[in-house]
Specification:
It contains 4 helices and no strands. By secondary structure, it is mainly α. The protein is extended and about 65 Å long. The mean pLDDT is about 80.
Amino acid sequence: MTSDIDHSPSFETTASQWIHLVGVGIEIFGIFVIVAGIIWSSRYFLGSAGSSRYDSYKISIGRSLLLGLEVLVAADIVKTIAIELTFTSLGLLAGLVLVRTFLSWTLVLEIEGRWPWQRDLAATAQIEREGSG
């Protein structure tokens, strides 16, 4: 007796698995960006002399962390789409995005000395001078 039941996975299941795999690949890339950025930034700390060595190192690491966090947020979005969307999965995604956004804002504050939504004071002064002159 043979069964006429098709044991092949459905298109939705296969697509979901591939999207999840893409999300994992993006996560691995995000981690690589952070690690490579730290290694690349170490040239500032090890290779240069002077008092600004620490500041350059800190800024360079902060920038690589910002980029890595953005890639990790993208991976979380892709992976959330890959699984069945529920209020729980959306809530977890929202929590992750909130935490990573807060980290990004604090890194921008540390690197640039201003919040992301504040304009650069030098650029604002330049615009005001050009407008009045």
